[in-house]
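DM from R.C. (forwarded with permission)

"hey, sorry to bug you on a friday — could you get me a structure for this? deadline for the figure draft is monday and I only need the backbone to look sensible"
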Amino acid sequence: MLIRGASGGVGMAAVQLGHALGANVTGLASSANLVFVQEPGADRDFDYATTAPSELGKFDVILDTVGNRLAEYRRLLASKGRMITIAIDSKAPISALMFIAVSTIFGGKRVRFFGAKFSAEILNDLTSSVEAGALRPVVDTIYPLSEIRAAHTALEKGGRRGKQIVTLL
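My reply, with the result:
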């Protein structure tokens, strides 16, 4: 399993859940976050800035939280592999959407854009994972609502470690 953006909030949860389910987890993150990605269970980690996709090998599952270079990473799928992206590159949204559309039409169900649909069952499963210690929420920074601009700027910069939280009270 390859996780692009492994040090972010969603990536960290995916690393932990993949590890708990017995997957061989490979994380892509910035060089500053490589050790951080290993702690919750990444078996291998690579600096996305210095590692070409072609150096990574094949994967049964690719979770993309970044939203760019989708075609390059799609080439890493094993013959029956699946790729899920939860992000669209804001600098090239048309090309990313076209890639997903073409992959869906001509590639079967190998590439999908994911949008969350929560249910009580899913939330109960996540709660059980947290209580069992298989999933540990990772928080990078907590901002008061008055600093929401700073929170958004930090998120756009990338390189975060876990979730950004904005408190309303």
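R.C.: lifesaver. The chain has two domains: 2-113, 138-169.
me: no worries. The beta strands are 2-4, 26-29, 44-47, 59-64, 77-85, 111-113, 139-144, 163-167.
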